[in-house]
Description:
The chain is an alpha+beta fold. It has nine helices and five strands. Among the domains are: 30-165, no CATH class; 257-312, SH3 Domains (SH3 type barrels, Roll), CATH 2.30.30.40.
Amino acid sequence: MPSYGSYGSPSLNKMENGYGSHSGRTSFSLGRIFGDPFALATISIGSLAWIIAFISSILSAVRPNEKERVPPFAWWTLVYMLFSIVGVAVTVASDSERTYHVAIVGFTAAGIVLSSSAVNALVYSPVAANEAAAAGFILLSMITIVWVFYYGSQPQASHRTFVDSYALHKEHPASRSSRQMSNTYPPQQSSLAPQPQLYTSAQLNGFETSSPVSGFPGGPVGAQDPRGSSMPPRFGGTPQNEATQQTPQEQSIEYPYRAKAIYSYEANPDDANEISFAKHDILEVSDVSGRWWQAKKPNGETGIAPSNYLILL
Length: 313
């Protein structure tokens, strides 16, 4: 029998990649910054604010009167904010925002304290250079507040979903699916990033995970058929008459999550495991990992549904 890793089936790629989360390395590309209006705007404004504060601090430092110069800690604030801006730019360009979002929130939150202290020390100064530096630090404070609010929120948050919908490289309903999932919402193809492909259970030829709890069709390895016969091979095709029957493992699946359909979806007629639903329908979800979720409709019908058409409540 060939080893587990020797199967060249797309279903194994879905099980390893679709249900994982950013396990592979991503390349560094400035196109991710230019393709994301939010990142481009905040990084550009933050860089401009830093330049204003830096040049104004230099003009203030050359004044003969030491009392009219910027305070010494303002220079440390400039260095700290420079590294914070560069750090945000690097994480966006490397598509690692979800990995380092906690670090971004922590560092930018500390930057709010430093830049606000610099503003308090400079904004009331009669020297024009100090007032210009205070204006730069005010812009830096505003940008860091926006970053803390954005990166400190869950990806499913409504404001973050709205902002991410304009990014070209991030996953959203217009670019996740490789086929037209709904007549009312045709997917748009992006020329800047390759489109990930989703496979239906009919295409997976028996490799689709029907139970997110067990990880295998019909339950764990070694499970017995309720009728007393042995279960079919785990990595082979399932009989047609068993495709629509629920095993005890499927019947005992819990659905702790609730999701709302943000788009209508029509199930593939060739795939008996998919379910159709209308916009604004409320579904119960058993697992929220991967691109396809095991869901249950209010009428009791269960099946898999594309996660990019749902939003958790």
